[in-house]
Every structure is written in C-alpha cells, then in structure tokens.
Amino acid sequence: xxxxxxxxxxxxxxxxxxxxxxxxxxxxxxxxxxxxxxxxxxxxxxxxxxxxxxxxxxxxxxxxxxxxxxxxxxxxxxxxxxxxxxxxxxxxxxxxxxxxxxxxxxxxxxxxxxxxxxxxxxxxxxxxxxxxxxxxxxxxxxxxxxxxxxxxxxxxxxxxxxxxxxxxxxxxxxxxxxxxxxxxxxxxxxxxxxxxxxxxxxxxxxxxxxxxxxxxxxxxxxxxxxxxxxxxxxxxxxxxxxxxxxxxxxxxxxxxxxxxxxxxxxxxxxxxxxxxxxxxx
Length: 281
Hints:
Domain Sigma-54 factor interaction: 1-198
Structural class: mainly alpha
CATH class of the largest domain: Alpha Beta
Pfam families: AAA_lid_14, HTH_8, Sigma54_activat
Organism: Aerophobetes bacterium
GO molecular function: ATP binding; sequence-specific DNA binding
Number of strands: 5
Number of domains: 3
Distance between the termini: 37 Å
Shape: elongated
Radius of gyration: 23 Å
Protein name: Sigma-54-dependent Fis family transcriptional regulator
C-alpha cells in the first residue's frame, strides 16, 4: 500500500529530516533475532555474537524508526518496546547498561490491532502508546488518483539509478495503469515501472513494456486519446473524466453501480462528478 513511502515522506518533510530514517521489518525475522535487530547486542550475548552490534533504535537516534508490520511482534518483544518508548532508554541483548535514545516511531501493520487487543495478542498499553496520529492507507485500487504521482516518482528514481534519460508515460499507457487493480499494491506498481525503465527500448513506456496481465486491458479499451501536448495533471484529468463518464453511462447513471465498475467508493464518484462537472443527459 506504500506504507514505507508515506513514512519516508513524513520523515523527510519534518523537523527530523536531517536525522537517519531506519526501517525495521517486524515480520521478516524470528522473534529472538528481532530483539537483537531492534535493540542490538553485546559481544558474546549468544552463540554467533562475535562482536558488538548496534540495533535499529541506536541507528535511528535523532531521526525516525519505521516499524513495519508491528502487529507481528511477540508479547515479550512488545513489552520491551513499550518500556523503550516510555523510558526512552534501551538495553542491548546481553547488556546491563541503559542507552538513552531520542527517536520518532512510525509503526505500520495490515492487521486490525483493536481486534488483536481484544483477543489478547497485542498489548493494549502499547496500542494506545503508539496510536497518537492514525493514518489509514487504503489499497492502491481504492486511491487510483495516486497512480500518476507514484509513476512519476518511480520513473525519476529508476531512470536516475540506471543512468539513462528520464522516460515518460504516454496517456494510453497511463490509461492501462489506471485501470489495473494492483493486487500487489504500490510495490507491484514500483516493480512494473522499474522493469519498464530497465527493459524498455525507447524514451516512452509503451503497453508492450508492461506485464501481460496489464497489456490485456488494452483489448477492452475504447478510450479516445486526445492529441496535443498536455501536462501530466491535465492528461490525468481528461482520462479520469472520460473513464467516470463511461462508467456512469454503462451503469445508466446509477452512481453505486458506476463506483463498482471503477473499483472506488460512491463518495469518490460523487466528488469527481462535481469536480469535472459531469451531469446526466
């Protein structure tokens, strides 16, 4: 869903932007290794600990620590995390000396933590300690307005990394990207753009540079693309208005049915109709 992108945006647009931005994936390691990853360890703390290691908290001191999939933490690790947040101190695994930390925490999860609290698998006190500002991030298929901006972001990133010229996305290709449902969310979109930048032969990313499941949507397309040079914002607006109008006509102007065809909420359809001045004939 782009959780890390949002976390990075918060960090690099805030007062801690000069500090480090550190990511800890709470689902990628066994719990005993995760404690070492978060809090660090002393030399000889366990078999294989041949040297002192700084944990994510220390590495992020003065900046932001992004805890991804925090709902996967064991209750024991949750207790240590809560103590670290409350006391602003940690102890490395195998250590006895408290280490002061100053770090902002951004946490993310796909789990329903309120339900986890009721079921006893997530600590209530930790939940309320973390839940200061809540940002609900819907799947990409429910916020397709973000796709053009994300495409532009990934184009710049991977064009720069590959050392090539900045590529562009024609309106016809953008149409395909906007109509795809993105079951893999933002990460899938990122992978598609990276592949197209690396493998594409021209300066434009065409339908043939996209995966087959997205190319197939072109067979269903009946959109008439306007000619002329338009800004990305105007292109998206023109495309969006056309798609919404087509869906409304197909749904006989029943907004709920049109919303289902577009994969968005009825509220979004109403908002877009007002934005673009779309009215029933």
